[in-house]
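Final report, section 2: Outcomes. Of the targets proposed, histidine kinase is the one most frequently requested by collaborating groups, and we therefore present its record in full.
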Amino acid sequence: MTERPFARPSPDNTQPVPAPTRPRSVIVHVMARMVPAWVALALVLLALLSVLLLLRSHALNLQRASSNLNATERLRADVLDMETGLRGYALTGSPEFLQPYDHVIGTLGPHLQAFREAAQATGMTRVNRAATEAEVLIVQWRQTYAGPVLTRGPGARRDLELARLGKRLVDDIRVQLDVVEEAGHAQVNGIQGQIAGLAGRWLPLLTLLSLLALALNLWVLIRLATEIRDGLRHVTQPDALPAWLRWQESVEARASVDTRVSAVQGELAREREERRRTGLTLDGVLNTMTSQLWVLDEYGSVTRINRAGLQALHLHDQPPQGTRLQDLWPELAQLYLHGDTLPDEPQELPTPDGPRWFLLQRDEQERGTLLLLTDVTPLQLSRHALEASNVNLTRSNTDLEHYAFVASHDLQEPLRTIASFAGLLLATQGDRLDERGQFYARNVIEGAERLKRLIQDLLSFAKVRAEQLEFAPVDMTHVTHAVLATLEEEVGRCAAHVTVAPLPPVLGRESLITQLLFNLMQNALKFCRDDLTLHLNVHAEPQGDFVRFTVEDNGIGIAPEYQEQVFVIFQRLHGRARYQGNGLGLAICRRIVELHGGRIWLESQEGMGCRFHFTLPAARLDGSPEDSAPLDRPRPGTP
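The predicted structure is given below as tokens.
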């Protein structure tokens, strides 16, 4: 039997006992010494990869923000091209100047969609509102300025009012585009700043940490190589067995101690990190609050103020321990110390920047008090300005209504005189007048009658605006048939087929609703087609707390670009030679519907009839108290 090296005799000296070998203990020791260094290197590399991925994410965000900014700049260029083309066409009448305008019209839809998405990407209500206002202004500019210029050509350049209107609308469009573009620039600059800050702060630090981790791995390897070399040297010496055993025991002991020390150090590090993270989280939350937060102990001393509170008082650091609230802000202390509850209304308090308005809240705790101060100065100033504007507006409306009533009465008297004398002249002296004189006299009478109707329509419009409505249930079926009876002559003249479905009752003013239906049905009878029999349908359907009514005809219809214009006062789409009217009927309809808390809109295609929709609050005819109360309901949205 061959003896293993380093054999030692047994206690009875009969046969050698092989020396114990524990290669697994050495391997475990080596691995235990290497793992922390490897973990450190892996963590550094992982952090470096995370920073690179974050930089890539910021780069993608920057690309999207730049694309959104380009969409706004492209729409600004479109507006400039349209305005330039129309101005050249108005000055010269040459169609070649319309090429930029026509090109922009062909791409305006996608450009507006991209502009809308760019505004939404900012996530700011103010920017979204500006984008919506810009789209509305562009549509209004095309309808009220571009349309007349294209129709009238060079003749439009002499219309100064039209030119001022076009310039004002374009200026308003540019103002809204500036809002969106400034937000886009701010977003791009913010992302660029984030990228620069991230690259400047973290990349050099992570590179240095990577080098340190590599150096740590190299140092651990050198230490392990030294220990193994020393162990081998002890084994090859004559007293190898005792030395080898001592080395093995020292390795195991160090490994055990290192393991326990590492566990304790890891636990302590985790506790420190948890405390640090909790403190940073609380400080971050408090310092990102826009409201002031004051923490008072049970004795009324200030123990902590967040960043907003420090900035409000122009303080750079926390106040010394034991500082009283009276010493920092006497006016706030007076409100806090006097009275069990704080006032609900905003309070005016002096600050280093001047008086400010604050909404105060207090939360009593077992070991102190939390005071929360929310600065509502802009809101309070806006409220005061709004109240003053409402007072001025009410006074102005009262003066305008009084003027409308007085002016309508004073203007109708001379009109009656003019019409009467012109009629007498035509009746008594008609045989002495030639054909031209008779034509002039008839024009005087017709003009006086037209002006009289216009004054009466204006008076009706003013009365609708001045109504103090007390609502009651209105039987819409009865009102509709009453209006048809009034329009019986016009219905017979057009040979119209009228269909009225059963209509639910509504809550409103019967006289105004009668005027609303009269104007809509008279409008349908007026604008009927000569080559078709007029079909007029009235029907309704419930929509929650409202009822949507539809007055539908197969008349001449209205082009989509003019469907909002017809509700504007004095706006006419046709000459008086063919269709009578003053451009007030549909404006009165809108005013009546809005006074009832509803809305009115139009669906139509030119030559394919019209569908006027309007909503009124629903009512029950059972005598319930709510049916006679003033209207206080939300307006329904567009279906």
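The chain is about 60% helix and 10% strand.
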